């Protein structure tokens, strides 16, 4: 029987000899669903695209967890490092030192934070983050001049390029004859760009040896940076670190260090959910109005089917199949067009973004299988809900009243 119902639905919606009014309303209904599907898919694709790009950027140039102290700087502890590595989710741990400094080149001066780390960790971070790099990928030391990797924003402000020598100025407390400003010459061995303007303007990287020279101590560190097998495990691992670490050690996850960016992303989700609901409601009304018109136009055909013995339940099923057919066709075409737009934006960057405002230069659209599955499920639920009333009305048609003048 189900095969027969599909046959009837196909005759109603797509047969060339069908009532001329039916193809018109069918095309309009499918067109409306295509537009609605594209709107929903692209909206969700942009949301997930921004989220994925943000996670990719942040976890690329930052460690997944940083362990710092709310007291002064701490001493490197090999036993503590071994204890951290006992956790199977922690794949790497290494020390780092943050130095606040003023960089001077010619008449220009710029304040930055120099993050000192092991050379191997630095190279690994460059490969992980896929930063745009000018220069080599190693720190360099020549004639006691330390190598420095400088953010693009700071380099642009100072008007320096790879190979230039800049002065790094340090002072503890208020400068005085007894507390003079200390100056160290460093050579710019590379310039990096993360796409995040604030980061590129305020950060630089140098080897741990440079921090030891500035601090006159190779044991003092700012903290430890950890890499995890999965960045999304950061919250769980952070809780474990809190339990096993000294009281003044504070683990900070990559999300917590970029909380404002993720809060901004979270605020975008509420209006998107509302928009999603409105589009689904419009699609439901579209299907209802289409089926109501088909029921009216096909009233005589429905009466004939009932007069030859078709059950009201089969009539309902037939019109529900009509609604599902229209929905699936509109959703399918809409998803194909959406994937085409995603491909085009990925390869040709039709819509560009200002890097002064955003951390990327093009609008990210990522339509995953999960997004497509959500769209299809919403479409099925919406179409089934929308077909209920028209299908019920069609099943209640009385052949005697419709055919009495035939």
H/E order of the elements?
HHEEHEEHEEHEEHEHEEHEHHHHHH
Rough outline: elongated
Q: Order the strands across the largest sheet as they lie in space.
A: 3-4-9-6-8-7
Instruction: Indicate the mean pLDDT.
Output: 84
Oligomer: single chain
Unreliable parts: none
Give the total of beta strands: 12
Largest sheet: 6 strands, mixed, barrel
Q: What Rg do the Cα atoms give?
A: 32 Å
Number of helices, where a helix is a run of at least 4 consecutive DSSP H or I residues:
14
Helix content: 55-70%
Terminal Cα span:
28 Å
Our count of domains comes out at 2
Q: Which percent band covers the strand fraction?
A: 15-25%
Commentary on this structure:
With 406 residues, the chain is of the alpha+beta class. The chain has two domains: 2-58 and 262-403, no CATH class; 63-257, no CATH class. It contains 14 helices and twelve strands. It has helices spanning 2-14, 21-61, 78-85, 119-129, 152-158, 197-202, 208-215, 234-244, 254-257, 259-297, 299-307, 312-348, 369-395, 399-403; strands spanning 65-69, 74-75, 90-105, 108-117, 132-135, 146-151, 165-170, 182-193, 203-207, 220-221, 223-228, 249-253. The longest helix is centred in the first third of the chain and has 41 residues, at 21-61. The model has no long low-confidence stretch (mean pLDDT 84).
């Amino acid at each position: 029987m189900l095969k027969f119902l599909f046959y009837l639905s196909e005759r109603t919606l797509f047969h060339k000899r069908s009532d001329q009014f039916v193809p018109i309303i069918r095309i309009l209904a499918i067109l409306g669903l295509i537009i609605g599907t594209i709107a929903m898919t692209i909206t969700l694709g942009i949301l997930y695209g921004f989220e994925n790009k943000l996670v990719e950027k942040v976890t690329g140039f930052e460690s997944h967890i940083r362990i710092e102290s709310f007291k002064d700087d701490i001493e490197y502890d090999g036993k503590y490092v071994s204890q951290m590595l006992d956790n199977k989710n922690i794949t790497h741990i290494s020390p780092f030192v943050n130095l606040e400094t003023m960089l001077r080149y010619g008449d220009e001066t710029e304040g930055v934070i120099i993050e000192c780390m092991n050379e191997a960790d630095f190279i690994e971070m460059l490969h992980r983050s896929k930063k745009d790099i000018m220069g080599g990928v190693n720190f360099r030391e020549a004639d006691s001049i330390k190598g420095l990797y400088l953010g693009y924003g700071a380099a642009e402000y100072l008007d320096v390029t790879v190979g230039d020598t800049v002065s790094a100025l340090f002072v503890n407390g208020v400068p005085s004859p007894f507390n003079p400003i200390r100056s160290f010459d460093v050579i710019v061995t590379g310039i990096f760009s993360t796409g995040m303007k604030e980061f590129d303007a305020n950060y630089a990287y140098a080897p741990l040896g440079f921090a030891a020279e500035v601090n006159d101590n190779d044991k003092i560190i700012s903290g430890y940076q950890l890499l995890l097998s999965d960045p999304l495990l950061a919250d769980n691992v952070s809780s474990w670190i809190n339990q096993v670490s000294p009281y003044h050690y504070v683990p900070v996850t990559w999300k917590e260090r970029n909380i404002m960016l993720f809060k901004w992303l979270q605020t975008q989700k509420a209006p998107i959910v509302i928009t999603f609901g409105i589009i689904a409601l419009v699609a439901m009304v579209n299907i209802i109005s289409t089926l109501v018109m088909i029921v009216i136009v096909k009233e005589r055909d429905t009466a004939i089917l009932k007069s030859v013995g078709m059950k009201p339940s089969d009539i309902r099923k037939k019109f529900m199949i009509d609604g599902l057919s229209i929905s699936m066709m509109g959703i399918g075409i809409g998803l194909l067009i959406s994937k085409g737009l995603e491909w085009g934006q990925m390869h040709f960057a039709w819509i560009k973004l200002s890097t002064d405002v955003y951390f990327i230069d093009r609008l990210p659209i990522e339509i995953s299988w999960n997004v497509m599955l959500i769209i299809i499920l919403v479409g099925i639920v919406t179409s089934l809900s929308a077909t209920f009333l028209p299908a019920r009305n069609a099943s209640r048609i009385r052949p005697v009243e419709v055919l009495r003048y035939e």
